[in-house]
Structure formats: structure tokens, C-alpha cells
Design a protein that fits this description.
about 375 residues; alpha/beta; TIM Barrel; eight-stranded parallel β-sheet; two-stranded antiparallel ribbon; 13 helices; globular; binds NADP nicotinamide-adenine-dinucleotide phosphate
């Protein structure tokens, strides 16, 4: 894989890490020829041995007909999803996030794990590139105990066509308690079915409980996957981000571009269709315009798009791996340019303050359940 990453971008990164933590006066100068990521830009997932790219790719929309794709899945969308996968791997983003419930249970839907598995299989015919897969266990009310985790995982592995996954996560907290599920995660590690385990939508309290329970078996809780973007900063306010940092748990940021809203393509005159349109109404979108305009201005200085700026903002928070979703190759290619450069500390803070001013009520606070 050819590497064309601006060394200036990396030197400013190094400078920032070496520095006292104060503001950098200079902007990172990046080359627009960034086409692939460097292998050594990988980060460890928490205390596990699994290394993934600084940015992953979310596969929720692949095959889904409940939230995405205007309720329809067809051959064209399949080809586009496959192209998104290939463009991502071509660009060096090789960490993919899926779940057993993505693309499941609805008329016309195709399971996202099945799709991802077929894309990996196809790719491996010609390419030995290392691909990291994360999937998730659905803590459905009728699933009890540790055994349910193993049987669900075995079904996921069968759909993916893999003998193990890099990261297995509890998708959301169980309503009857989580001890059995956490024990199931530990069993999965011991059986060699997963390389690392994590949770998702876990509050600070649940995170600490899960961490402690796994630690007794000598297993690190590698990640907590939560909703986190410039306009949904609950993890900064509810102790989740601080706890991840304290315990050495990677925060995987889902919906990092606020489901497309932060790209700037949706406006009060052109709101998103489907379920997103009920969250991001023209009123909400109108309030966001000053922030989106400023993101654009900052991006222009670097030759970056809004999408790249807001993903970079998340990476700047440290210990955060964003997993934006891409429906096509173009979207996936754009993510590649989100790293290999860095916003200044002043820009990071300015965007946070501006986002706080708009106070949008966005996202479903699953972590409060
Ligand atoms: N653990 C959980 O409970 C949970 C919950 C949600 C998501 N997730 C994970 O996080 C991943 C990402 O979250 P998400 O899909 O909710 O939201 P997101 O990544 O913030 O937004 C993805 C959507 O934004 C649009 N988009 C993507 N790239 C774009 C670009 N370059 N330019 C313009 N528009 C672009 C696409 O939709 P349009 O083209 O239709 O606008 C795409 O489907 C999911 O795939 C899933 O793996 C996990």
C-alpha cells in the first residue's frame, strides 16, 4: 500500500505531544496528497493487545431498512457499501464496527455482519491486509446469563465467516443486570473467540463495575462505545470520558458526524429524510448553522472538509476512536483525510464553546437508561 502522508502533519503531532500542553501558535500544514494512513498510526484498544486504526468505519447502515436507506435495500446500495468498504481499506482504515442487530429483523433488510463478512472474504482473495472487526451482543430482555453471550457470538462469527473477532461489545446494558453478560465476555476471551472485549452505552457506574469484574479474571475492559460528537458531548459531562481515561479504556465514538448533520449538507431548507428528520428538524438545523459555518471556515485554512474537521476534533480529545458510517466510497475516502494533521488547541476549544452555545438537544441518552 502506498503511503503519502505529510511529514509536516506528523511533526506537529509530535510537537504537541512533547509540549507542555499549552496552545500551539502554528497550524499543522498538511499535504492534500494524503491518500493512505500509516500502519504505525494504529492505537491499542484499552489495555488489550488489539491495535486498530485511529479511525474506524461503522457498518450500521449496510443492509439496514429500519433507520437508514429510506426503508429500502437494493443491489445499488449493496455495491455502494462494498465500494465504501474497499475505499476504506485502500485508504488504510481497516477497523470495522458492526452488530448482530444491524440489518436484522426487518423486511428487505440484510444482516450487516453477513455483508461485512462477504466484503472481507472477497478482499482476501487478492489482498492479505489485516482487517479488524468489532461486533456487538444485543442484551435483549429474554437473553439471560453468560451462555447467551457465547451462543450469540458464535452466530455472529458464522455470519462474518470468521473464527474470532478483534472486539466483542455488549451493545447496551441489560435490564435485569449485567454480571452474567460480563462473565460471558470473559468466557469469550478464554475460549479464544475474541481478542478484546468492550461495552457500549455504559454509564460511569456500569463501566467501573464491568472493569472491576473483568479485572478479577485478568481481562482488560478494552472499550466503551458511546455517542460522542462536537454537538453531543454527554461523555465529557457525565464522567464517561474521564473514567475511560482514568481506567485506560478506549472511548469509541459513535455517530461522530452526528449522522451526517455536521457535514454541513443538511440545512433548514434541506433536512434529512426518514427518522433522522425527526431529530434534526429545520429548527435544530437553523441553530446549528453558525457552528457549521465556523467549521467550514476552519476547514478552509487546512484544505479540509467539515467532515474531516469534526472527526479531527474528536481525535484531538485523545483516547477516542471515532467510527463514522459510510454508505459509499466517496464518504469513506473523505474520512481518510480526517487524520494525519491536527487542529490547534485554540480551534478545538473555540469549536467546543461555539457548540455549547447552540445547546441542541440531540441524541438518545441510552447511557442514562
Ligand atoms: N453502539 C451503539 O449504540 C451505536 C449507535 C449508533 C451508531 N453506532 C455505530 O457508529 C457508526 C457510525 O454512527 P452513525 O452511522 O449513527 O452516524 P455518523 O457516522 O455520524 O453518520 C453517518 C452518516 O452520515 C452520512 N455521511 C457519512 N459520510 C459522509 C460524508 N463524507 N459526507 C456527507 N455525508 C456523510 C451518511 O448518511 P447520508 O448519506 O444518508 O446522509 C452516513 O450514513 C455506526 O455505523 C455504528 O457502527 C453504534
Amino acid at each position: 500500500m502506498a503511503l503519502q502522508v505529510s511529514s509536516a502533519g506528523f511533526s506537529i503531532l509530535a510537537q504537541r505531544r512533547r509540549g507542555s500542553g499549552g496552545s500551539l501558535g502554528a497550524r499543522a500544514v498538511t499535504s492534500e496528497s494524503v491518500t493512505t494512513l500509516k500502519g504505525d498510526e494504529k492505537v491499542k484498544l484499552g489495555g488489550s493487545d488489539v491495535k486498530v486504526t485511529r479511525l474506524g468505519l461503522g457498518a450500521w447502515s449496510w443492509g439496514d431498512t429500519s433507520y437508514w436507506n429510506d426503508s429500502g435495500w437494493d443491489d445499488r446500495k449493496l455495491k455502494e457499501a462494498k465500494a465504501a468498504f474497499d475505499a476504506s481499506v485502500d485508504g488504510g482504515i481497516t477497523f470495522f464496527d458492526t452488530a448482530e442487530v444491524y440489518g436484522a429483523g426487518m423486511m428487505g433488510a440484510v444482516n450487516s455482519e453477513t455483508l461485512l463478512g462477504s466484503f472481507i472474504k472477497e478482499r482476501r482473495k487478492t489482498d492479505s491486509v489485516e482487517i479488524s472487526v468489532a461486533t456487538k451482543f444485543a442484551a435483549l430482555p429474554w437473553r439471560f446469563g453468560r451462555g447467551s453471550v457465547i451462543s450469540a457470538l458464535e452466530n455472529s462469527l458464522s455470519r462474518l465467516g470468521l473464527s474470532s473477532v478483534d472486539l466483542y461489545q455488549l451493545h447496551w446494558p441489560g435490564i435485569w443486570g449485567n454480571e452474567g453478560y460480563i462473565d460471558g465476555l470473559g468466557d469469550a476471551v478464554e475460549k479464544g473467540l475474541v481478542k478484546a472485549v468492550g461495552v457500549s452505552n455504559y454509564s460511569e457506574k456500569r463501566l467501573r463495575e464491568a472493569y472491576d469484574r473483568l479485572k478479577k479474571r485478568g481481562i482488560p475492559l478494552a472499550a466503551n462505545q458511546v455517542n460522542y460528537s462536537l454537538i453531543y458531548r454527554a461523555p465529557e459531562e457525565n464522567g464517561v470520558k474521564a473514567t475511560c481515561d482514568e481506567l485506560g479504556i478506549t472511548l469509541i465514538a459513535y455517530s461522530p458526524i452526528a449522522q451526517g448533520i455536521l457535514t454541513g449538507k443538511y440545512t433548514p431548507e434541506n433536512p434529512p429524510t426518514g427518522p433522522r428528520g425527526r431529530i434534526y428538524t429545520p429548527e435544530v438545523l437553523a441553530k446549528l448553522q453558525p457552528l457549521i459555518a465556523r467549521i467550514k471556515e476552519i476547514g478552509e485554512v487546512y484544505g479540509k472538509t467539515n467532515t474531516q474537521v469534526v472527526l479531527n476534533w474528536l481525535v484531538c480529545q485523545e483516547n477516542v476512536v471515532p467510527i463514522p458510517g459510510a454508505k459509499n466510497a466517496e464518504q469513506a475516502k473523505e474520512f481518510v483525510g480526517a487524520i494525519g494533521w491536527q487542529l490547534t488547541d485554540q480551534e478545538v476549544e473555540e469549536l467546543r464553546s461555539l457548540a455549547a452555545e447552540t445547546k441542541p438537544v440531540i441524541g438518545f441518552p441510552v447511557e442514562k437508561l
